[in-house]
Amino acid sequence: MALLNRLKEYRARLGINQQDLGKLAGVSRQTISLIERGDYSPSVTLAIKIARICGVTVEEIFDYEEDGSNE
After folding, report:
1. Closest Cα to residue 61, out of 19, 30, 41, 39?
2. DSSP at 55
3. Nearby residues of 35 by Cβ (< 8 Å), 6 or more positions away
4. Which value, in Å, is the radius of gyration of the alpha carbons in the chain?
């Protein structure tokens, strides 16, 4: 299972860097980088904050992909 995201794309639309988005969301630049690379799944609260900053729904940025099992 993987949480896919389009955060880099939406951040670029805003014209801000990882540091700026981190400040707006209350997290570090490193956290934004990890999310964009898919190495870190944000909490529900952080995902909502990021979506609000970008002016979109959580589902427009984040997408959950199952690993093919039925569980």
Report:
1. 41
2. T
3. 5, 7, 41, 42, 50
4. 12
Q: What is the pTM of this model?
A: 0.88
Query: Residue 67: its pLDDT value, please?
Result: 72
Handedness of CA 19, 58, 42, 4 (dihedral sign): negative
The predicted structure's pLDDT at residue 70: 52
Q: How far apart are CA 41 and CA 49, in angstroms?
A: 14
Predicted confidence band of residue 34 (pLDDT cuts 50, 70, 90) = very high
Q: At 2, which helix (H) or strand (E)?
A: strand 2-5
Give the chain's domains with CATH numbers: 2-65 (1.10.260.40)
